[in-house]
Design goal:
The protein is α/β, with parallel strands linked by helices. It contains 9 helices and 4 strands.
C-alpha cells in the first residue's frame, strides 16, 4: 500500500510538472540569444516552478499583502453585492494575507467575498504575476467569475497593485457579469516608466531583475 501511494504521488507530481510546463511560453533560439536573462527565467519556470515561486515570493519587489484583522461578519444586507478581490504581482490568493483581506472585506460588508487568482494553485498563481500575459490573466479572471453562481448578478471589485489591471481588463473586455463599483488600491492603470527598486545587483532577485530589465523599452513588444 505504501509503494502504491508513493507511485501515485510521483504520477501526480509528473502530471503537475507537465501542466506547469505548458503554462509558460518558450523562446526561439534567436530571441534566447537576445534576451539571455529572460530565457533563463523562463527555463526555470519550466524546470523548477516550485523553486521559482518561492524565489519570487521572497523577493522584496513582490507585492505580498500582510495579514489583517478579519473581524466578525455583519448581518447580510439582501441588496448588497458580493466583493471580488485581485492580488498584486508576486502575491497569491492562496497566501494568508490575501485570504484575510478577502474575508475581512466580506465580513465588514456582510456579503460574500472571493479572491480570484491568476491560476489554479499557489505555484502557478505566484509565477503568473510575472510570466502570464495580461490577456490570459483577464481571460482566466472572467472564466472564474462566470463559474461562480454567487457572482451572476454582478459584483463590486477592488485590486491591489497589478490586480487592478486584471480587473480593469475584465471591465473593458467583458464586464459580464458586470462590475458595479471598482476601487483601485495602489493601481498602475496609467502605466509605469520602469520597474521600481529592481536592478541586477538587488539581493536574492538580481537575476529576475536582469530579465525584466531586458524587456523594458523597445523589446517589450518582441514576440516570444
Amino acid at each position: 500500500e505504501s509503494l502504491n501511494m508513493q507511485i501515485t504521488y510521483l504520477l501526480v507530481c509528473l502530471l503537475m510538472i507537465g501542466a506547469l510546463a505548458e503554462e509558460w511560453p518558450t523562446m526561439s533560439p534567436e530571441n534566447a540569444k537576445k534576451l539571455p536573462h529572460l530565457n533563463a527565467f523562463l527555463e526555470r519556470a519550466h524546470q523548477d516552478p516550485a523553486g521559482l515561486a518561492r524565489h519570487l515570493h521572497q523577493s522584496s519587489n513582490a507585492t505580498i499583502a500582510n495579514d489583517v484583522t478579519v473581524g466578525t461578519k455583519k448581518a447580510n444586507a439582501a441588496d448588497t453585492l458580493p466583493v471580488v478581490v485581485a492580488h498584486g504581482m508576486g502575491d497569491s490568493c492562496f497566501n494568508s494575507g490575501m485570504k484575510s483581506i478577502t474575508e475581512a472585506s466580506g465580513n465588514r460588508l456582510g456579503v460574500y467575498a472571493t479572491c480570484i487568482p491568476t491560476a489554479d494553485n499557489w505555484i502557478t498563481d505566484t509565477i503568473g504575476g510575472f510570466l502570464k500575459n495580461m490577456d490570459k490573466s483577464v481571460e482566466y479572471f472572467a472564466k472564474r467569475v462566470r463559474a461562480d453562481p454567487k457572482l451572476k448578478n454582478g459584483f463590486n471589485a477592488f485590486g491591489l497593485s497589478q490586480g487592478n489591471n486584471v480587473i480593469r481588463g475584465y471591465i473593458t473586455k467583458y464586464n459580464d457579469p458586470p462590475v458595479h463599483t471598482f476601487m483601485s488600491i495602489c493601481g498602475i492603470n496609467a502605466g509605469v516608466g520602469a520597474f521600481p527598486e529592481c536592478s541586477p545587483s538587488t539581493p536574492v532577485v538580481g537575476s529576475v531583475c536582469s530579465a525584466i530589465t531586458e524587456v523594458l523599452g523597445d523589446l517589450a513588444y518582441l514576440e516570444i
